[in-house]
Structure formats: C-alpha cells, structure tokens
Specification:
The chain is an alpha+beta fold. It folds into two domains: 205 residues, PmbA/TldD fold (2-Layer Sandwich), CATH 3.30.2290.10; 220 residues, no CATH class. 22% of the residues lie in helices and 40% in strands. It contains ten helices and 22 strands. Strands 1, 2, 3, 4, 5, 6 and 7 form a seven-stranded mixed beta sheet that branches. Strands 8, 15, 16, 17, 18, 19 and 22 form a seven-stranded mixed beta sheet that branches. It has a six-stranded mixed beta sheet with strand order 13-12-9-14-21-20, covered by helices on one side. Helix 1 crosses helix 2. The model has no long low-confidence stretch (mean pLDDT 94). This is TldD/PmbA family protein. GO terms for molecular function: metallopeptidase activity. Pfam families: PmbA_TldD_3rd.
Length: 439
C-alpha cells in the first residue's frame, strides 16, 4: 500500500462531500512493521503488521465530534467507510452543545518530513542477533519498519510524515534467574553498535552469579543509565503542560513558581529536528521549545484549548500537552570513566514501577531491577537485590547531580498497544552524589 497516495485519495474524496457550514480535519496513521520475539536466543515468533487508521472530525459552528475508523488500504472501500462516518457525525452534531474553548487553527499551513525512510534490513539484524547471542539465554522483542502520519483540514492545512526505525529490547538471563536488561534503538541498524551493547550486557551478566551485596536503606552515590532516567522523565515530563501548571497539578509547579531550582547542568528541549515524531499535531506545526535552560524554567507546552482558557499563545502542542521528542543536553562525563568517577556506590541500569510518592513536592518512587550493582573503588563487586527508591527530582536533578555523560542516547517507546509509537527521548546518563533507597 502506498500510504501517501491512500491518504490523499481519502482527503480528495472527503473535500467533495462537504456541505455549506461544515469543516473537517482528517488524521491518518499507518505502519508496516516487523515483530520478532526471541527466547533462548532463537526466533520463536515472527510476523508483519500492516494497518491504517483515520480519525475524522466534523465541525459545524462551535459544535464538533470525531469518529475513528480502521481502514482496509483499498481506497474505494475506505471512501465508503468515510462516508458512513460522516453521516453519523452529521446526525450527532445537532444534539451537542457549543464548545466554549474551541479554537481551530484555520491557517493553510503545510509540513512534510521524511525521517529515515530507508527500508529496515530486518533479516540482517535478526541474523546478527541469533549468531551473536548463541549460547546465551536471551529473551527479546524486535520491532521495525516504516510509520506514516498525515493531517489535513478543510481550511487548507496539510501535514505528512514518514519515518522508519527499529527497537530491540532484550534481556540476558543468568541460570539463577537474575537478568540484565538492555535496549538498542535507532533509525538504521549498526552491527558494531549492537555488538557493543551485547558485549556490555554479557559483562554485566557475569557479575550476576556473585552473591548479592545487601544494602540498608539510605542515601548512596549512584550512576543512573539513560534507560533508568527514561523511567523518571516519563513520570514528570507531562509537568510542562500549560494546563497542569495553570491548575496547580504539575510536579514542576515549584520550579515554575520560583520556589525550587534545578542544577545548571540541566537543559531540556522539545525538538523538531532529530526526533522521529511528526513536525505537526492536529493543532498545527509544532515549535522547538526550550523547556529548561541551565536549570531555569523555560517554555511550556500549550495546546489551543489551554491558550483559549488561560490566555496563552498556542505553540502546536497536542491536546495532551506531552513532549514528543524530548532531548536533554549531555555533559562532560566520558562513558569510559563512569565507574571510576562513581567510585563507591550504585550502578543502576533500570528502574520500574515508577509513580509519585508526593506529586506537589516532585517526589518519585519505584523499584530497582535488572542488574543494579554495588561498585567499590571503580569496580563492580556484586549485584544488589531489588530495592525501592524514593527521591525528589529537585534533589537528583538539583544539587545532587554531579555530572552527565557526553552523548545522549536515543530511547524509543516499546509500547505497541494499538500501534507503534513515534515519540522519543534522548537522554544522557547521570552521576549523582546521593540517591535515596527506602526499602
């Protein structure tokens, strides 16, 4: 299926169906993805998913409704589905009340991007995974392929985005049941980069056979990998939402109010270039935003509804006002010097089951898992059993942040619920002078 041609055929048909006083927006999402599951370093399940969906929104004055429909990929059949959805919306809209915060972008904007649309060589990647992990108890999930997103409106807006990426999430299990978890993701598979990832995971796996080092609750020096930071950032990144800040519900409220601060090492941006997300939302073209600058609060994510309700200027953020391509600037820490700079403390590879223990105070809690190690004099000594952490982001991203690694790592979401996601984070690792474990 030619996704672009399919989308344009639906759009052209819909434009011809409009009646006086009506307007529409049409969102389109499609993918052609390979999904491969591994167990004991062998392919156990392989499949390919091709799917497309559309969301039609109809507007009559200040009234609006939307309908999501699955598509077949055959233009004639899908045009009929679109007509049926349009008739349902025409029946429903007269029964709805006016929307007081409806602020449609009626500009005739245009945005077209094609990020890494080259075909993924899944066969070569799978062959390397199987060969390189022979003899290991590797469990993993590989997803790859092109993704497409489109948007158009009856006011002349048109957006098209095509991107291709891969995401391989895997664990190496020790015979004692412990595991090292790792992830390799990007736009193009690099055999050398994967070999390096796997070699590092093997090195950690050897330490899992040692007796665990028992820790008492308390504060310890710690190094958090980019994957561990991703769990934390995923918890509070929605705090840049204009709606959350305006209603006092953001975990970053104290920062934007000026009653708390972060380290000047922390600079965070919502980017357009370099990410895999479209350069647009249904709100219009996205804007590059400096969310944090040297620890100081910057811009917030503002949708049209928040702009209307709180007297702000919209900047293309989606209705959820969540960053789509978050990037944190790196620092001066060389990856080869991580253990030496840590000295004695915790090497934390992953965190999970994260949640807020005190949202207004920005306190986060969760569990360590998957190869957290005790380090002495710059050398890994033993694994640490699962423990609970509880710490404030104003501490571990504030005075307790000693250094950041130089190169942020691209992290892609592993969720495939409904469809593969196009959001991303690019995060460095973080060396902390103290990180609090409670149980």
């Amino acid at each position: 299926m030619d996704a672009r041609r399919h989308f344009e055929a639906l759009l052209g048909h819909l434009e011809n169906q409009m009646q006086a006083g009506e307007g529409f927006t049409l969102e389109y999402q499609a993918e052609a993805s390979d999904f491969i599951r591994f167990n004991h370093a062998r392919v156990r399940q392989a499949g390919k998913v091709q799917q497309a969906y559309a969301t039609l929104a109809l507007y009559q004055g200040e009234r609006h409704g939307e309908f999501e429909l699955a598509l077949s990929g055959v233009s004639e059949d899908d045009q009929l589905r679109l007509d049926q959805s349009l008739q349902r919306l025409r029946t429903v809209l007269p029964t709805l009340a006016d929307d007081p915060y409806l602020r449609l972008n009626r500009e005739a904007w245009r945005s077209e991007t094609a990020a890494g649309v080259a075909t993924q060589d899944s066969a070569a990647a799978i062959s390397q995974i199987v060969e390189a992990s022979a003899g290991l108890d590797l469990v993993g999930f590989y997803a790859a392929g092109p993704q497409y997103q489109g948007f158009a409106s009856s006011w002349g807006a048109f957006g098209w985005h095509a991107a291709s990426s891969f995401n391989f999430e895997f664990s190496l299990f020790h015979e004692n049941g412990q595991a090292v978890k790792s992830n390799y993701a990007g736009e193009r598979w690099d055999a050398q980069a994967f070999a390096s990832k796997l070699a590092f995971a093997r090195e950690q796996l050897e330490h899992l056979g040692k007796p665990a080092h028992k820790l008492q609750p308390g504060a310890y020096r710690a190094y958090l990998t980019p994957a561990a930071l991703e769990e934390l950032f995923g918890l509070f990144a929605w705090g840049f939402s204009a709606q959350a800040l305006a209603t006092g519900g953001s975990p970053l409220q104290r920062l934007f109010a000026g009653s708390a601060s972060l380290s000047n090492k922390v600079t965070l941006e919502e980017r357009i270039e370099g990410g895999l997300a479209p350069a647009f939302t249904r709100e219009g073209p996205r804007q590059p935003l400096r969310l944090l600058s040297a620890g100081q609060p910057g811009e917030r994510l503002v949708s049209s509804r928040s702009a209307a309700e709180y007297g702000l200027l919209a900047n293309g953020a989606g209705s959820g006002e969540y960053p789509l391509s978050l990037r944190m600037y790196g620092g001066e820490l060389d990856e080869r010097e991580i253990l030496g700079r840590l000295g004695t403390g915790l090497y934390i590879g992953n965190l999970w089951y994260g949640n807020f223990s005190d949202l207004p105070a920005g306190r986060l809690t969760g569990m360590t898992r998957f190869a957290t190690f005790w380090v002495e004099d710059g050398r890994i000594q033993a694994p640490i059993n699962t423990m609970r952490f509880d710490d404030s982001l104003f501490d571990f991203l504030g005075p307790n942040l000693e250094a950041l690694t130089r190169e942020p790592e691209l992290l892609l979401p592993n969720s495939t619920y409904g469809a593969r996601q196009t959001g991303s984070m690019a995060l460095p690792g973080a060396l902390l002078s103290r990180f609090t474990l409670t149980l």
